[in-house]
Predict the structure.
Amino acid sequence: MSEIFYSSSPEDTERIGSLFAKKAKSGSLVLLKGTLGAGKTVFAKGVAKELGINEGIVSPTFTLVQEYEGRMDMHHLDLYRISGCDEFESMGGEEFLYSSGITLIEWAEKIEEMLPEDAISVNIEILEDQRRKIQIEGLDESIGA
Ligand SMILES: Nc1ncnc2c1ncn2[C@@H]1O[C@H](COP(=O)(O)OP(=O)(O)OP(=O)(O)O)[C@@H](O)[C@H]1O
Ligand SMILES: [Mg+2]
């Protein structure tokens, strides 16, 4: 299934992230796509909120992964600084592609060849003003926002 949503503010993008998390099953791998500042981390914050994770979500740019415990566990990866598959594997990243809970990856394009085919993609495009177009592909159920 493929659905498109329009966000008009960071709060709106968070809300869409929360609605998404309501429908996502444990074991979901979510590829967050979009340019710098598109709102990938903001979307992840909405996911965390719905999972009952109260810790502040910080961008995992320097740590590869941030792990949180909630209704389902959440793993948040940012591969911006990774060179490619070899480095990702040597850091032990592969286990996150197949773990339980929800795994969200920013800049997953860096490891394109390793990504399982059933991954969900969330593509965030910057429009004028504070607006964003958010296309979600590969989720079984409709989010119905
Ligand atoms: N509609 C919107 N949805 C999401 N973020 C928005 C929106 N409008 C403005 N913003 C702002 O855009 C920025 C998005 O930042 P965020 O860290 O989520 O981007 P990112 O896609 O994770 O970038 P990076 O690739 O650098 O990690 C925030 O400063 C946020 O306040
Ligand atoms: Mg980010």
